[in-house]
Amino acid sequence: MFLRVKNKIYSRLVALVILLIVTSWILVSKDMLAKNFEVFQVESGSSISDVAEELSDKKLINSRLFFKSLSKFLGANKKLKSGYYQISPNMSILAFLDNISNGSVLTTKVTLIEGKTIKYYFEQLSLDPSLESKGSLEDVMQSIGVKAPYDGWFFPETYNFNYGESVENVLRRSYKEMQQKVSDLWINRDKGLPLKSPYDAIILASLIENETALDNEKTLIAGVFIRRINEGMRLQADPTVIYALGDTYTPPLKKADLKIDSLYNTYRNKGLPPGAISSVSYQSLYAALHPEKGNDLYFVSKKDGSHAFATSYKEHKENIKKYLNNN
């Protein structure tokens, strides 16, 4: 009798010790070990053992056995989704397994601001750690189906993508967005405009984009450019010269710069330049296709971001004297 009681007590003590050990193991192993936000990639074709091994090697979990056992218990090992996942401080292994089995991948925002060249965008995106960069600018343009000149064909906007998306796909989406917007606006453009194609509208919009940041002035500037084209006058847009000078440009723009031999130099050549000089906002594109009616043929910066408009060269010279020569 005494022996039975003793054995029962001993068995209970062993069970209690085992329970304490298991409980301690669970408490120690249940959380990820990230001290800061981490990005972890589950590669295509990976097994739960591969994931556990990599997490252990990166010291993001305490126990491979616990990780694999819990994933099998939850069935997560059979529903593993590839992609990039965020591991946050104090995140539980349960939460992480839920993410990688449901495909709750990390997302990223990409903002392309207006008035920038495709070279600027490509460098910006290639340096973004959340994106995958492959190939040269020319390779990407060819893959997307964009022919030179490339500028102007990419719509500036904030786009949401999965972490690890390719630079090519970001630009492809931006390109499709611009195609749709310019197509819709082209159909409803004002009649009688001296623009032969939607890309002509983008070219004109890029000049407007670089001349003013004020939306309420854009149709006014568009009107000036359209009237100058109709009257056979050179556009004489400073931003086209700056674009033509490229990396050699040092502000401020000088009289000698206006003599540069380039098809983009609208001080030497009539009509639109052969390509856009930057990306364009929707407001600039709309203005190019809906210019303000009027008689103004000139405008000059008032140094506060706005412009003074004039119908005659005499009036224009007076504005120059008033706003540029008097500091």
Strand order of the largest sheet: 1-2
The structural class is mainly alpha
What's the number of extended β-strand segments?
8
Query: Runs with pLDDT <50, length 5+?
Result: 19-29
Largest sheet: 2 strands, antiparallel
Any idea what the shape is? Answer: elongated
Number of domains: 3
Report the portion of residues in β strands.
5-15%
Number of helices: 12
Describe the structure.
With 327 residues, the chain is mostly helical. It folds into three domains: 23-102, Endolytic murein transglycosylase (Dna Ligase, domain 1); 107-178, no CATH class; 183-325, no CATH class. The chain contains twelve helices and eight strands. Helix 6 (137-144) packs across helix 7 (167-187). The chain starts with a helix and ends with a helix. Mean pLDDT is 92; it is low at 19-29.
Entry summary:
The protein is mainly alpha-helical and 327 residues long. The protein contains twelve helices and eight strands. It has helices at residues 2-29, 48-57, 64-74, 93-102, 118-126, 137-144, 167-187, 198-211, 215-230, 238-245, 282-289, 313-325; strands spanning 38-42, 83-87, 107-111, 131-132, 158-162, 165-166, 298-301, 307-310.
